Amino acid sequence: MGIPGLTGYINNHSDHYLRYYELHNTYLVIDGNNVGCQIYHSQKAYRNCAFGGNYDGYARDVSIFFDDLLKCGIKPLVLIDGGTEDKKLKTVIKRTNQKIQKASTYSPCQNKETFLPVLQGEVFRDVMREKNIRQESMLPLAAILFGNDYVKRGTFKNFFRHLKLKTASTAWCERERCIEAIFSWLSKFTLDEAVANILTRIPKPSRRSVLNLIEENISYTNSLAEILVPLGFPGDYLARRDTSRLNRSFKFNGDIDTLTYMGEVCEGEEEVSEKDDDDEIELISTITETESLSRNEAISKLPEWFVNEYLLAKYPPYFMNMIVRRLYSCPIQIENINYSSSNVITLKIISVIFGLLKSAINDKVRYMRCIIRDQSRIVLRELEGTETLDCCKLPSLSKLREIPSDSRKEILNKTLGISDTDGINELPPNWILYFGCIKYWIREQEPTVFHKSNVYAILIGTIFHIIDSKIGAYRSARNFEERKSRVIENIKRKRRANNYKPNYKTNGTVIEAYNEICYDDCLLAASFFISHFQLDRKLRSNPKLFNRSIVHAFAEFQICLRQVMSLNALLGCPYPQTTVATFYNGTLLYNLSTDFKTHQDIEKYINAVLEMSPSLLRLFHILLSKVVWPPPRA
After folding, report:
1. pTM
2. Contacting residues for 98 by C-beta, under 8 A, at least 6 apart
3. 138: closest CA among 16, 31, 27?
4. In the beta sheet, which residues pair with residue 459?
5. CA–CA gap between residue 241 and residue 77 (Å, rounded)
6. What angle do CA 432, 436, 439 make, to 5 degrees?
7. CB–CB of 3/146 below 8 Å?
8. What pLDDT, in 10s, does the model give residues 301-331?
9. Is the CB of residue 27 less than 8 Å from the CB of residue 69?
10. 327-329/367-374 β-pairing
11. 131: Cβ–Cβ under 8 A, 6 or more apart, which residues?
12. Which one, 163, 308, 345, 468, has least CB within 10 Å?
């Protein structure tokens, strides 16, 4: 339940509101969505989001955050948002529209603003899983007064007039003054007294609905104690703790009809309210007309293994929206607004996911709805759930984990359109899902979006992951030169002395080529890659040079990867999950693709770049010929 401006206000007035404390040897409950976003927003080094996310730097900082907690004996308990509640649907739709408008004009020169990349949440959870981190409220009334996801600030305009806020020079200053005034005002009253004072500024006909809003929002922030169980607390722990406060609901202790109305009417003032867009109203109306299950009713029909894994954040939150509401809100990315939404390419995968999920609730249901971008607006599209793949009926959700792993793997293979003959099984296990996604992405792309330079960029970007693992992570050319220039000169000197002639063979398997990559070759090739991590100065100063077609293609790839990983998780991970941060860096891929586009023969250019690194060149050509573009089947 976000309060606009509150985090910034607390940060700017930390000396007044916060007390220094050396936290150690304790549990710490963390709002995972909030902290994950704050870490991304706080780092300028990788947060230029125009290229779709530099996840390696982000993963490093998330790792440092949790390492610092663990060093102090702190056991983090991270809570992740679940499915969308009914009362938040309007907010979701409004924010989706706002994101479309922001994404349509976003460019690399807007480095002061952030646009969270689509796989940020997956990377955050990857780090938590790696560190075995187990995966509400003090100021509810302040949240309601200022306006949150559920309550418009305009509801309390008479109350704010009573506060007599000073005029501010900017919207940000006005927001800070407003927060400060609310805190100061609240400090003078008990909760009941504060509510009574607020209601005196509300006309009597509207008081009951406003009080319902206040009571509902304050009570909403009290979590059930049972949420502690999936976080690892034993059942008897709850019995030993006083959890009555957690489950307590707020009810106003007073008579709203006897309160004297103290509203002020200014001459010539017109009622001002936030107007919802007609398209948004129609969209919400259409969605709410669809019959949906209560969350408790849905959970009672789901297999126990699914509920437990969902509670442990092993699945994305939208799974519950599909189950309860038969609805999926497609994420907004920075892309070419003149093309079809980047999400269109993933509808086949989403259809399979829905086909598996709906079987647990109502197998007779055939369709779900997707909130998706169409040009510069959002629309509702129907999507039929998949029931058969290659004439084979999908198993029900209740039986899904009872079938062999190979059968579940086959569901994923058929969805992606891959098979053993594609060279997939020659790959290192933790590469398979990523390359399966590459093949699906290449095949499903529209001709207007597809360009070979993007495919070569993805492939070369994968090879740089190996260089990283061999020599360490370098993103600054200057830093790399200072540390490795002498070593590189020694390698070149020895090769000249030995009359070294680089050569490579294109036979053998991918794993053989992978295992034979040598440290010296990685060092010699690294400078080419490192130079592509930096933002082109011309691009920063001239947004017109920003190629949205390249960004759109990689937006399609990212959303493909997200849905493939979600399906893989639902199937019990027949393939090891992709660690996104080790493979994907948006700035690197954009710069590589831009570079490759300037060369008529891209392979010839890559051969020249990697000429002195034959072990890398060998892997590149084997991957290209056996996995990415294998010869046609007989």
Report:
1. 0.82
2. none
3. 31
4. none
5. 17
6. 140
7. yes
8. 889 899 888 888 889 989 988 998 899 999 9
9. no
10. parallel
11. 63, 66, 67, 70
12. 308
Chain centroid offset of residue 367 CA: 26
Say how far apart CA 75 and CA 71 lie, in whole Å: 10
**Nearest residue to 127 via CA among 221, 244, 238, 36:** 36
CB of 510 within 8 A of CB of 619? yes
d(CA 521, CA 163) in angstroms, rounded, equals 68
Distance CA 176, CA 35 (A): 21
**What's at 575, amino acid-wise?**
Y
Please report which residue ranges of 87-226 form alpha helices under DSSP H: 89-105, 120-130, 140-146, 157-163, 171-186, 191-199, 204-220
pLDDT(139) > 50: no
What is the 3 state secondary structure string of 449-487? Answer: CCCHHHHHHHHHHHHHHHHHHHHCCCCCHHHHHHHHHHH
Q: How far is CA 61 from CA 41, 47, 471, in A?
A: 11, 12, 20
Say what the pLDDT of residue 336 is.
95
Distance CA(544)–CA(432), nearest Å, equals: 37
| pLDDT for res 140 | 45
Q: How far apart are CA 456 and CA 628, in angstroms?
A: 10
Length of the chain: 634
Q: What are phi and psi of 321, to 5 degrees?
A: -65, -40
Amino acid, single-letter form, for residue 618:
R
Could you tell me which of 366, 397, 399 has the C-alpha nearest to residue 383?
A: 366
User: What is the spatial distance between Cα 396 and Cα 239, in angstroms, rounded to a whole number?
Assistant: 37
The mean pLDDT of 354-380, rounded to a whole number, is: 90
Nearest Cα residue to 433 out of 583, 598, 222, 317: 583
CA–CA separation, 182 vs 176, rounded Å?
Answer: 10
Report the C-alpha gap between 439 and 626 in whole angstroms: 12
Cα separation, 132 vs 149, whole angstroms: 32
Using the predicted structure, report yes or no on whether residue 123 has a pLDDT greater than 60: yes
- Higher pLDDT: 459 or 299? It is 459
Report the candidate in 500, 511, 596 with the shortest Cα–Cα distance to residue 547: 596
Nearest to 191 by CA among 254, 260, 244, 242: 254
pLDDT tens digit sequence for 595-613: 999 999 999 999 999 999 9
- Tokens at residue 447, please? 């001709």
